[in-house]
Protein backbone atom coordinates (compact mmCIF):
# COMPACT_ATOMS: atom_id res chain seq x y z
CA UNK A 1 0.00 0.00 0.00
CA UNK A 2 1.52 3.39 -0.98
CA UNK A 3 2.13 6.06 1.67
CA UNK A 4 -0.99 8.26 1.79
CA UNK A 5 0.17 10.80 4.36
CA UNK A 6 0.59 13.37 1.62
CA UNK A 7 -2.84 12.70 0.11
CA UNK A 8 -5.06 14.37 2.70
CA UNK A 9 -6.83 16.53 0.12
CA UNK A 10 -7.55 13.52 -2.08
CA UNK A 11 -8.82 11.48 0.86
CA UNK A 12 -11.09 14.32 1.98
CA UNK A 13 -12.37 14.79 -1.57
CA UNK A 14 -13.09 11.07 -1.90
CA UNK A 15 -14.94 10.72 1.42
CA UNK A 16 -16.95 13.92 0.95
CA UNK A 17 -17.95 12.84 -2.56
CA UNK A 18 -19.24 9.51 -1.25
CA UNK A 19 -21.16 11.19 1.60
CA UNK A 20 -22.56 14.06 -0.47
CA UNK A 21 -23.33 11.97 -3.57
CA UNK A 22 -21.64 14.11 -6.22
CA UNK A 23 -18.51 16.10 -7.00
CA UNK A 24 -20.61 19.29 -7.00
CA UNK A 25 -22.01 18.74 -3.51
CA UNK A 26 -18.60 17.70 -2.19
CA UNK A 27 -17.04 20.82 -3.72
CA UNK A 28 -19.47 23.05 -1.86
CA UNK A 29 -18.71 21.22 1.37
CA UNK A 30 -14.97 21.68 0.81
CA UNK A 31 -15.17 25.28 -0.48
CA UNK A 32 -13.68 24.41 -3.85
CA UNK A 33 -14.82 23.55 -7.39
CA UNK A 34 -16.23 20.27 -8.75
CA UNK A 35 -13.27 20.10 -11.13
CA UNK A 36 -10.80 20.36 -8.25
CA UNK A 37 -12.58 17.60 -6.33
CA UNK A 38 -12.65 15.35 -9.40
CA UNK A 39 -8.93 15.90 -10.02
CA UNK A 40 -8.09 15.19 -6.36
CA UNK A 41 -9.97 11.91 -6.52
CA UNK A 42 -8.27 11.02 -9.82
CA UNK A 43 -4.83 11.66 -8.29
CA UNK A 44 -5.77 9.47 -5.32
CA UNK A 45 -6.88 6.68 -7.66
CA UNK A 46 -3.58 6.91 -9.51
CA UNK A 47 -1.65 6.87 -6.23
CA UNK A 48 -3.31 3.71 -4.91
CA UNK A 49 -3.55 2.08 -8.33
CA UNK A 50 -7.27 1.33 -8.46
CA UNK A 51 -10.51 2.92 -9.58
CA UNK A 52 -12.71 4.11 -6.72
CA UNK A 53 -15.76 5.32 -8.70
CA UNK A 54 -17.69 4.27 -11.77
CA UNK A 55 -18.35 7.57 -13.56
CA UNK A 56 -21.16 8.23 -16.03
CA UNK A 57 -22.80 11.47 -17.15
CA UNK A 58 -25.73 10.79 -14.80
CA UNK A 59 -24.35 8.84 -11.87
CA UNK A 60 -21.36 8.31 -9.64
CA UNK A 61 -21.16 4.94 -7.89
CA UNK A 62 -18.48 3.24 -5.84
CA UNK A 63 -16.53 0.30 -7.20
CA UNK A 64 -15.99 -2.69 -4.92
CA UNK A 65 -12.49 -1.38 -4.12
CA UNK A 66 -14.00 2.04 -3.52
CA UNK A 67 -16.46 0.62 -0.99
CA UNK A 68 -13.69 -1.17 0.92
CA UNK A 69 -11.47 1.91 0.85
CA UNK A 70 -14.30 4.13 2.09
CA UNK A 71 -15.04 1.79 5.00
CA UNK A 72 -11.41 2.03 6.13
CA UNK A 73 -10.73 5.71 5.50
CA UNK A 74 -14.02 7.43 6.44
CA UNK A 75 -13.86 6.67 10.21
CA UNK A 76 -10.34 8.11 10.40
CA UNK A 77 -11.35 11.35 8.71
CA UNK A 78 -14.43 11.64 10.90
CA UNK A 79 -12.15 11.46 13.95
CA UNK A 80 -10.15 14.34 12.51
CA UNK A 81 -13.39 16.24 11.89
CA UNK A 82 -14.52 15.66 15.47
CA UNK A 83 -11.24 17.03 16.78
CA UNK A 84 -11.55 20.06 14.52
CA UNK A 85 -15.18 20.62 15.53
CA UNK A 86 -14.22 20.57 19.21
CA UNK A 87 -11.79 23.41 18.56
CA UNK A 88 -14.02 25.41 16.20
CA UNK A 89 -17.00 25.19 18.56
CA UNK A 90 -15.09 27.45 20.94
CA UNK A 91 -14.88 30.19 18.29
CA UNK A 92 -17.52 32.66 17.13
CA UNK A 93 -18.93 32.18 13.60
CA UNK A 94 -17.57 34.55 10.99
CA UNK A 95 -17.52 35.18 7.26
CA UNK A 96 -20.37 35.42 4.78
CA UNK A 97 -23.70 33.66 5.29
CA UNK A 98 -25.68 33.66 2.05
CA UNK A 99 -29.37 32.85 2.59
CA UNK A 100 -32.45 32.50 0.40
CA UNK A 101 -35.90 32.63 1.97
CA UNK A 102 -39.49 32.98 0.68
CA UNK A 103 -40.46 36.60 0.21
CA UNK A 104 -43.88 35.88 1.73
CA UNK A 105 -42.31 34.79 5.03
CA UNK A 106 -39.68 37.53 5.16
CA UNK A 107 -41.82 39.94 7.27
CA UNK A 108 -42.16 37.19 9.88
CA UNK A 109 -38.54 36.00 9.85
CA UNK A 110 -36.38 39.06 9.19
CA UNK A 111 -37.12 41.03 12.39
CA UNK A 112 -35.80 38.23 14.59
CA UNK A 113 -32.93 37.53 12.21
CA UNK A 114 -31.79 41.15 12.33
CA UNK A 115 -32.63 41.99 15.95
CA UNK A 116 -31.30 38.85 17.62
CA UNK A 117 -29.29 36.57 15.32
CA UNK A 118 -27.26 39.32 13.63
CA UNK A 119 -26.74 41.10 16.94
CA UNK A 120 -25.48 37.90 18.58
CA UNK A 121 -23.07 37.16 15.71
CA UNK A 122 -21.34 40.44 14.86
CA UNK A 123 -18.61 38.80 12.74
CA UNK A 124 -21.13 37.34 10.29
CA UNK A 125 -21.91 39.13 7.03
CA UNK A 126 -25.49 38.38 5.95
CA UNK A 127 -26.32 38.13 2.25
CA UNK A 128 -30.09 37.55 1.96
CA UNK A 129 -32.14 36.82 -1.14
CA UNK A 130 -35.95 36.97 -1.02
CA UNK A 131 -37.72 34.89 -3.64
CA UNK A 132 -40.48 32.30 -3.81
CA UNK A 133 -38.92 30.40 -6.72
CA UNK A 134 -36.84 27.27 -6.16
CA UNK A 135 -33.28 28.56 -6.44
CA UNK A 136 -30.36 26.39 -7.56
CA UNK A 137 -28.51 26.37 -4.26
CA UNK A 138 -25.15 25.31 -5.67
CA UNK A 139 -25.17 27.22 -8.95
CA UNK A 140 -26.35 30.43 -7.23
CA UNK A 141 -23.87 29.98 -4.37
CA UNK A 142 -26.24 29.95 -1.39
CA UNK A 143 -25.13 28.52 1.95
CA UNK A 144 -28.68 27.67 3.04
CA UNK A 145 -32.13 27.96 1.50
CA UNK A 146 -35.42 28.14 3.43
CA UNK A 147 -38.41 26.70 1.58
CA UNK A 148 -42.02 25.69 2.26
CA UNK A 149 -43.20 22.41 0.73
CA UNK A 150 -41.66 19.07 -0.08
CA UNK A 151 -37.92 19.48 -0.77
CA UNK A 152 -36.44 18.98 -4.22
CA UNK A 153 -32.84 18.16 -5.10
CA UNK A 154 -31.54 14.75 -4.09
CA UNK A 155 -28.02 16.00 -3.31
CA UNK A 156 -29.18 18.45 -0.63
CA UNK A 157 -29.29 18.01 3.13
CA UNK A 158 -32.75 18.78 4.50
CA UNK A 159 -33.34 20.00 8.04
CA UNK A 160 -37.01 20.09 8.97
CA UNK A 161 -37.83 23.25 10.91
CA UNK A 162 -41.62 23.13 11.43
CA UNK A 163 -44.95 22.24 9.86
CA UNK A 164 -46.99 25.31 8.88
CA UNK A 165 -50.82 25.03 8.92
CA UNK A 166 -52.91 26.07 5.91
CA UNK A 167 -56.23 27.90 6.07
CA UNK A 168 -59.01 29.05 3.73
CA UNK A 169 -59.95 32.66 4.48
CA UNK A 170 -62.50 35.15 3.17
CA UNK A 171 -63.91 38.56 4.05
CA UNK A 172 -66.96 38.99 6.25
CA UNK A 173 -69.19 40.20 3.33
CA UNK A 174 -68.06 37.19 1.29
CA UNK A 175 -69.02 34.82 4.12
CA UNK A 176 -72.43 36.45 4.40
CA UNK A 177 -73.00 35.70 0.72
CA UNK A 178 -71.51 32.20 0.58
CA UNK A 179 -71.56 30.95 4.16
CA UNK A 180 -68.93 28.67 5.66
CA UNK A 181 -68.01 25.47 3.83
CA UNK A 182 -68.92 22.49 5.96
CA UNK A 183 -67.58 19.86 3.56
CA UNK A 184 -64.97 19.43 0.86
CA UNK A 185 -67.76 19.21 -1.71
CA UNK A 186 -69.13 22.58 -0.61
CA UNK A 187 -65.65 24.08 -0.83
CA UNK A 188 -65.33 23.13 -4.51
CA UNK A 189 -68.22 25.45 -5.35
CA UNK A 190 -66.69 28.53 -3.72
CA UNK A 191 -64.93 31.10 -5.96
CA UNK A 192 -61.28 31.68 -5.04
CA UNK A 193 -58.52 34.17 -5.58
CA UNK A 194 -56.11 31.55 -6.89
CA UNK A 195 -52.35 31.15 -6.58
CA UNK A 196 -50.64 30.83 -9.94
CA UNK A 197 -47.13 29.46 -10.49
CA UNK A 198 -45.45 28.83 -13.81
CA UNK A 199 -48.68 29.54 -15.65
CA UNK A 200 -50.56 26.88 -13.68
CA UNK A 201 -53.18 27.33 -10.97
CA UNK A 202 -52.06 25.62 -7.78
CA UNK A 203 -54.46 22.99 -6.43
CA UNK A 204 -56.12 23.18 -3.05
CA UNK A 205 -55.08 20.18 -0.96
CA UNK A 206 -57.04 18.54 1.82
CA UNK A 207 -55.51 16.70 4.76
CA UNK A 208 -56.75 13.36 3.42
CA UNK A 209 -54.73 13.83 0.22
CA UNK A 210 -57.57 14.89 -2.07
CA UNK A 211 -56.98 17.89 -4.30
CA UNK A 212 -59.03 20.10 -6.59
CA UNK A 213 -58.43 23.13 -8.77
CA UNK A 214 -60.52 25.98 -7.34
CA UNK A 215 -62.63 28.15 -9.62
CA UNK A 216 -62.25 31.91 -9.64
CA UNK A 217 -61.60 35.01 -11.72
CA UNK A 218 -58.52 36.38 -9.91
CA UNK A 219 -55.12 34.72 -10.30
CA UNK A 220 -52.01 35.94 -8.45
CA UNK A 221 -48.43 34.75 -8.06
CA UNK A 222 -48.08 36.31 -4.61
CA UNK A 223 -49.59 35.40 -1.26
CA UNK A 224 -49.78 39.07 -0.33
CA UNK A 225 -51.84 39.76 -3.46
CA UNK A 226 -54.18 36.89 -2.53
CA UNK A 227 -54.71 38.47 0.88
CA UNK A 228 -55.70 41.79 -0.71
CA UNK A 229 -58.05 40.00 -3.12
CA UNK A 230 -59.70 38.11 -0.26
CA UNK A 231 -60.05 41.30 1.79
CA UNK A 232 -61.77 42.92 -1.18
CA UNK A 233 -64.30 40.08 -1.37
CA UNK A 234 -63.09 38.82 -4.76
CA UNK A 235 -62.86 35.25 -3.53
CA UNK A 236 -61.64 32.97 -0.80
CA UNK A 237 -57.89 32.40 -0.47
CA UNK A 238 -55.95 29.25 0.44
CA UNK A 239 -52.88 30.40 2.37
CA UNK A 240 -50.41 29.64 5.12
CA UNK A 241 -52.16 30.55 8.35
CA UNK A 242 -49.15 32.51 9.59
CA UNK A 243 -49.47 34.90 6.63
CA UNK A 244 -52.96 36.00 7.68
CA UNK A 245 -52.61 35.83 11.47
CA UNK A 246 -52.99 39.60 11.83
CA UNK A 247 -56.06 39.74 9.56
CA UNK A 248 -57.65 36.88 11.51
CA UNK A 249 -56.94 38.55 14.85
CA UNK A 250 -58.37 41.85 13.59
CA UNK A 251 -61.46 40.17 12.10
CA UNK A 252 -60.62 41.48 8.62
CA UNK A 253 -60.55 37.90 7.32
CA UNK A 254 -62.40 34.87 8.68
CA UNK A 255 -61.92 31.11 8.48
CA UNK A 256 -64.19 29.90 5.67
CA UNK A 257 -63.73 26.18 6.37
CA UNK A 258 -63.13 25.66 10.11
CA UNK A 259 -64.47 22.10 10.02
CA UNK A 260 -62.42 20.91 7.03
CA UNK A 261 -59.05 19.32 7.79
CA UNK A 262 -56.30 21.00 5.79
CA UNK A 263 -52.66 19.91 5.57
CA UNK A 264 -49.61 21.38 7.21
CA UNK A 265 -46.75 22.16 4.86
CA UNK A 266 -43.16 21.33 5.82
CA UNK A 267 -40.84 24.28 6.31
CA UNK A 268 -37.25 23.21 5.70
CA UNK A 269 -33.70 24.50 5.60
CA UNK A 270 -31.67 23.02 2.75
CA UNK A 271 -27.91 23.04 2.31
CA UNK A 272 -25.20 20.99 0.58
CA UNK A 273 -22.54 20.69 3.26
CA UNK A 274 -22.84 16.96 3.92
CA UNK A 275 -21.67 15.80 7.33
CA UNK A 276 -19.45 18.81 8.03
CA UNK A 277 -21.84 21.72 8.51
CA UNK A 278 -20.12 25.09 9.08
CA UNK A 279 -20.84 26.65 12.44
CA UNK A 280 -22.50 29.69 10.83
CA UNK A 281 -24.98 27.43 9.00
CA UNK A 282 -25.68 25.27 12.06
CA UNK A 283 -26.36 28.30 14.26
CA UNK A 284 -28.59 29.87 11.62
CA UNK A 285 -30.62 26.66 11.24
CA UNK A 286 -30.94 26.33 15.03
CA UNK A 287 -32.19 29.91 15.22
CA UNK A 288 -34.66 29.43 12.36
CA UNK A 289 -36.01 26.22 13.91
CA UNK A 290 -36.97 28.20 17.02
CA UNK A 291 -38.48 31.04 14.94
CA UNK A 292 -40.40 28.57 12.75
CA UNK A 293 -42.07 26.97 15.76
CA UNK A 294 -43.32 30.42 16.78
CA UNK A 295 -44.88 31.26 13.41
CA UNK A 296 -46.32 27.73 13.15
CA UNK A 297 -48.36 28.51 16.26
CA UNK A 298 -49.91 31.69 14.80
Characterization of this structure:
It is elongated and about 80 Å long. The strands form four sheets. Strands 3, 4, 5, 6, 12, 13 and 14 form a seven-stranded mixed beta sheet that branches. The protein has a three-stranded mixed beta sheet with strand order 8-7-11. Helix content is 41%, strand content 25%. α1 crosses α2, α1 packs across α3 (34-48) and α5 (106-120) packs across α10 (279-296). The chain has 298 residues and is α+β, with helices and mostly antiparallel strands. This is HTH-type transcriptional regulator TtuA. Transcriptional regulator of the ttuABCDE tartrate utilization operon. Pfam families: HTH_1, LysR_substrate. Keywords: DNA-binding, Transcription, Transcription regulation.
Q: What would you say the CATH architecture of the largest domain is?
A: 3-Layer(aba) Sandwich
Q: Based on CA inertia axes, which overall geometry fits?
A: elongated
| Rg for CA atoms | 24 Å
Order of helices and strands: HHHEEHEHEEEHHEEEEEHEHEEH
Task: Sum up the structure in keywords.
D-Maltodextrin-Binding Protein, domain 2; 298 residues; single chain; alpha+beta; 14 strands; 3-stranded mixed β-sheet; 25% strand
Amino acid sequence: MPNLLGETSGLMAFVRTVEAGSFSAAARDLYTTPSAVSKSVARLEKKIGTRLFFRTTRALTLTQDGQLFFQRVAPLLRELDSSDDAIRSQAAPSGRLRISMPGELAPLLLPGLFDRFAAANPDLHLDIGLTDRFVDLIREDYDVVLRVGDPTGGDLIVRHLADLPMIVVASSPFLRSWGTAGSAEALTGVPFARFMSGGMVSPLRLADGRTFIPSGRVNCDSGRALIYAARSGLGAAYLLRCLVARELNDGVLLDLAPEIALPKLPFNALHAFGRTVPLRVKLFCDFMAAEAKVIAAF
